[in-house]
């Protein structure tokens, strides 16, 4: 690759991240730091950073920093003055070391996590564009010396994984400061066009357009001084995972903003863990903080039914529901709440509380994607990441997805499954390319049929995987408890529980007192309250303990004086 092409590609990266840089805050530092880490990974794959790779970083750095002197060196002096080039290379190496040593996470990229959270809270769409631009830049770096080795292909695979790993970012608050962001200006038709570009979900698109038309009429009536029809925008999104519920919720927030029903229209996403605390008073604080962050926007609660576990009489989840209902009333003109989850569970959840039932009267039913739609999603992932499947590869892909679709159950992953399939595909492509000596752009971007993973790779055989917790319960219960649990069978019960939880590193102690079964769970990190409640609810029917009327659960770290949480269940 000649210097002109390197400079061109570097300029394309700058244009891709420029809208983000204009937001201010610490985004400039995050972009440069992650670029430095990407360079470090690429350089390590072939032993050193080459002159071409340093040139690519120099151009991006000079454009971001608006450093006219360095830009002059890159454009005018790099090819004409070897002394200036050597000195600049040394300066770039020092800068790279400074950037990569400025964080405790040696290789973890911070920008994807920050943008993932930023997009959720602000209803923006920076993540995909920036991540795709960074990955393209990594490809440029790898090809800068004119050849691509197996080690460099492995480096590209690692970078792709890092760019698609989203962790809790401690730097998020600093990254977005000062908080002066607002959603980009869009009209409603632009948002609807964005909705129409999504694969499938035709029934959802129709429902959203119908709601939009209704709100437009309400807006027109209000502008003419006519009485407004009372309108509740709270909604229930029900359906299987991976069907685009969060994406649609974000677009609806934008529509509400553009029509004047919300001032910001941003999306704040949470679940039970983000709302329920393990101590008295903590739940109300968490819910209030979430509501405050979502004011003038949309609060999206995933798996909302987990707030009301079955067979639970004392649970802070009910407190979260009560506080949420109160805040929905307090801020009825400033807050839209969307609850999401499996259809049956969401019906039970809403019907369980009159306050919820009266506030949620809009239902959107999301369906599994068809095999053809799953193929379209895969091809979009390829296009966004600069890959192109051949027709034969698409035929192999379609056959695989047809089989997976026919075998699906209620946990079928839909778009999430396709993303996992795409990741495995590019890994297998990298292995195939390892034996090719000459790698052109076409070779690097083409997906062949042999790159599509086999069914066995996605669905390992029973003998090749660890049993699930439920399978462990059933398997161990068969050998330990062929009959209903006797009153003196606490030791048997403790053995069963520990066998089932051993893969998770959790130990348990059980005690029976006045028909009340007490179980203490311990682990290095206090076991998840909801996971242990679900575990016991799965286990109890198998034990048939007629003499037990109540179950008390506790979770803590070994040696802790007090439990981190407690829970009471009625049998």
UniProtKB/TrEMBL annotation:
Entry protein name: AAA family ATPase
Organism: Stenomitos frigidus AS-A4
AAA+ ATPase domain location: 231-370
Keyword tags: ATP-binding, Nucleotide-binding
Metal-binding in keyword set: no
Gene3D superfamilies: 1.10.8.60, P-loop containing nucleotide triphosphate hydrolases
Similarity remark: Belongs to the CbxX/CfxQ family.
SUPFAM superfamilies in the record: P-loop containing nucleoside triphosphate hydrolases
